[in-house]
Write a structure and sequence with these properties.
Structural class of chain B: mainly alpha
Mean pLDDT of chain A: 88
Oligomer: heterodimer
Helix content of chain B: over 70%
Structural class of chain A: alpha/beta
Mean pLDDT of chain B: 84
Largest interface: A-B, 46 and 37 residues
Low-confidence stretches of chain A: 237-241
Radius of gyration of chain B: 26 Å
Shape of chain A: globular
């Protein structure tokens, strides 16, 4: 499996009072970080790609396929949310298995894949646990395991590690990096901590008031010559923290 | 580029399914049912009256106005007698931390579950002319105790229902006071009175219109209590007058006038209360204690103890009277009577069907409302359909069962045997009656589950039957069961519709009980009341248990 390009052609969407407008292409296999103030439209960008929001105008393409109006599960996309990635009443095995079959009818091959993904994410021995019996990090690992077995060429991460401590966050990011190395999918991730991910992302989008206000490599955006709006955001963030 | 081979699972492009929310039909269907139910009744009333407007108007005479006045007057008194003591009891309950507190709140939940006719019998067994308290009361007053009939009986029964309900609702609002306020109060050294004035009363006053409004509405539309404990033209409410016009005077036009008057009254009161900001969703969940710091003085403690003892005795006594009087009846013979057996089976079957219908309709409204709320969030505006799904379940508060029943009664007269549609009427109207409660049970669970699972299920393509079996049922099984059992208990004990439509062919337990009472078979009635009370109580206990486990 490899990644797929993600193209937003003049996509317009309104969520009063904000109007969103995205026109951007993400290359196959690229890793993009999305950052910006709260409410600026980071999640909306991901929701438009994933199909949780439908564009009012414009086109969303994944690969060559126009998926503008496709239902979420018909898009070649996996989404890892900030929380609630798992069904609370199902154990880890079932939660990951749902990535292979939405009715949980798993073939022996499916089972092997699921087991393999659980190993890769370091959850061996916890297959029968319920989400409540896992730590926050383990829950997100299970979500990543499911993303693995789904084998979709685009992975969207909406701050799934935001509630974890710094050390755990670094662990999880390196897990993502590792998965990217072996599978090569396109990754779009929202992050409030651009410096965390500066090391391995290809590009950073800075979103402000519903549009991509600036984009570039980590060096371009986070360095000394960063655009004024980005510098202001980063500076404010420093004061908050 | 994405490989379009076996590694890419989704059949992209097989069909372009819009992911805009579809499937609003369950809510539309449920609303359609309510509209047909209310519309049919209304149509029946208007067509009957339109045949003879003048005669219909002529029923707005002094007698009718006196009935309307009594309807309101008894409701005002009942509300005052429930609310004011409830404030005292709530306060007493909140001031102390003791083991029986939870138990008392649970005791106060029971009256809501008991059928009105069972409570009426309890009140009679206790305060009636030949009741358990007749002798001591005669001794005290020095004359023959006349028994509680008319206004006094109605008030006692209404307070029995609504004082505990009010206590639970008030306790809930007291609970909303943040713990820090109490810490602050104790740090500042506020006394008991200052705490009342500065902390408790403001919160209680805010919930007062809502609670009083609810109690008032329950009393205005009270039918069974007035029918069994009221008496004569001096103590009749509109609902009972409607029943008498249809069942005894065979006067549909008169019934229509009374029904429209009652409808105008309830609509007027509900609109007034909505204007005043009262909310109609009473959600009497068991409340847990806030921690309090410091304890009341001995004088206040004794006073509180007295208040709680009197309130508990008042709630317990009629229930105990039902049990004692019931056990004195010839239960073995009653159990062998075919009429009793048939009525029990009829009751259970009809209540089961009504509960099933109520649960299905409520689920439809709740799920459609949730879908609409999610799509509407972008526009910050709610469509008519969404608002209807939100409020539709409350229809029965405005259009009471007797009004619905009366409308269909006069309508069905033109199409053949009125009593043949009895089962349908009992099931549908009782289902509508239970809907506010069922919606309240399942909506929080549904909304929470949807919040947590909907996007996930959509992204994984868990739809249709898979969604039902993997996501909906495991999460909502318990609230659905609770709602179902609650609806069944309510329906089992209801006398409203069956009083209009009952006949020798279709008898439920409450109907049979009323018949025994009418025939002065007081012992048999007491035995049946015990049976009916135990049945509904058992259902409520199971319902409470499933809820606690959830």
């Amino acid at each position: 499996m490899t990644g797929a390009t993600v193209t937003l052609r003049d996509v317009r969407f309104s969520f009063r009072p904000v109007r969103f407008c995205y026109d951007v292409q993400i290359a196959a296999g690229e890793i993009v970080a999305v950052t910006g103030p709260s409410g600026s439209g980071k999640s909306t960008l991901l929701n438009l790609i994933a199909g949780f929001e439908i564009a009012d105008a414009g086109q969303v393409l994944i690969g060559d396929e126009d998926v503008t109006t496709h239902a979420p599960h018909l898009r070649p996309v996996t989404f890892v949310f900030q929380e609630n990635n798992l069904f609370g009443h199902l154990d880890v095995l079932s939660n990951v298995g749902l990535g292979r079959s939405a009715s949980l009818r798993l073939s022996p091959d499916d089972r092997a894949l699921v087991q393999n993904a659980i190993e890769q994410t370091g959850l061996t021995g916890k297959e029968r646990r319920l989400p409540a019996q896992l730590s926050g990090g383990e829950r997100q690992r299970a979500a990543l395991a499911r993303a693995l077995v789904r084998e979709r060429p685009v992975l969207l991460l909406d701050e799934p590690f935001a509630s974890l401590g710094p050390a755990l966050r670094t662990d999880m990011l390196s897990l993502v990096q590792q998965l990217h190395k072996s599978l090569g999918m396109t990754i779009v991730m929202v992050s409030h901590h651009p410096e965390d991910i500066a090391g391995f992302v290809d590009r950073i989008f800075f979103i402000d008031e519903g549009r991509i206000a600036a984009s570039g490599t980590a060096a371009e955006l986070l360095g000394d010559r960063s655009p004024a709006a980005v510098a202001k955001y980063l500076g404010n963030r420093g004061q908050d923290g | 580029m994405a490989e379009r081979d076996g590694t890419l699972k989704p059949a992209i492009g097989e069909s372009r399914i819009r992911s805009k929310p579809s499937g609003l039909w369950p809510g539309r269907l449920a609303l359609g049912f309510l509209i047909v139910l209310a519309g049919g009744a209304f149509g029946g009333l208007v067509s009957e009256a339109s045949g003879d407007w003048l005669r219909a108007l002529s029923f707005l005479d002094a007698r009718t106005l006196a009935i309307a006045r009594f309807t309101l007057w008894q409701a005002v008194l009942s509300t005052a007698l429930s609310i004011i003591p409830a404030l005292l009891v709530t306060r007493a309950l909140s001031r102390h931390q003791f083991a029986g507190r939870e138990l008392l709140l649970r005791l106060f939940a029971i009256p809501q579950a008991l059928p009105a006719i069972v409570v009426a019998l309890g009140v009679l067994a206790l305060f009636g002319r030949a009741g358990f308290l007749a002798e001591p009361f005669s001794a005290i007053s020095g004359g023959r105790w006349p028994g509680v009939y008319g206004l006094s009986g109605i008030l006692i029964a209404h307070v029995f229902f609504n004082l505990p309900l009010s206590v639970r609702l008030f306790s809930q609002s007291l609970q909303s006071i943040p713990d820090d306020n109490w810490r602050l109060a104790s740090q500042l050294g506020m006394g008991s009175l200052a705490q009342w004035r500065l902390i408790e009363w403001p919160v209680l006053r805010a919930s007062l219109p809502g609670v009083a409004g609810l109690v008032f509405m329950l009393c205005v539309t009270s039918f069974t209590i007035v029918l069994t404990l009221g008496g004569g033209p001096a103590a009749t409410t509109l609902e009972v007058a409607i029943y008498q016009a249809l069942r005894f005077d065979f006067d549909p036009v008169g019934a229509v006038t009374l029904t429209l008057l009652q409808l105008g009254l309830t609509i007027g009161i509900v609109s007034l209360l909505m204007l005043l900001g009262g909310r109609f969703a009473d959600s009497a969940e068991i409340s847990v204690v806030n921690r309090r710091y410091g304890s009341p003085g001995i004088g206040e403690a004794l006073l509180n103890l007295a208040v709680l003892a009197i309130a508990s005795a008042f709630v317990l006594a009629p229930m105990a009277a039902v049990v004692v009087a019931g056990l004195k009846a010839d239960l073995a013979r009653l159990a062998g009577e075919t009429a009793v057996l048939r009525a029990t089976i009829t009751s259970l079957v009809l209540a089961f069907a009504a509960a099933l219908l109520a649960t299905g309709l409520s689920y439809s409204l709740v799920s459609t409302r949730n879908r609409l709320a999610k799509t509407g969030h972008r526009q910050h505006r709610r469509t008519l359909l969404e608002r209807s799904c939100d409020q539709g379940a409350g229809l029965i508060l405005v259009v009471p069962p007797i009004v619905l029943g009366a409308g269909w009664f006069v309508l069905a007269r033109h199409f053949g045997d009125v009593f043949a549609i009895a089962p349908v009427m009992v099931v549908t109207v009782n289902a509508a009656m239970a809907m506010p409660f069922v919606v309240r049970t399942i909506r929080p669970a549904y909304d929470a589950a949807a919040e947590r699972h909907d996007r996930l299920a959509a992204s994984l393509g868990i739809i249709g039957y898979s969604r039902l079996s993997l996501v909906v049922w495991p999460v909502l099984r318990q609230p659905l069961m609770t709602g179902f059992l609650f609806a069944m208990a309510l329906s089992l004990g209801d006398l409203g519709v069956i009083a209009l439509f009952g006949s020798d062919a279709v008898q439920t337990l409450p109907y049979l009980l009323l018949a025994k009472l009418g025939a002065y078979r007081t012992d048999d009635a007491a035995g049946l009341a015990l049976l009916l009370g135990l049945l509904t109580f058992a259902l409520m206990m199971v319902a409470g248990r499933t809820r606690d486990r959830a």
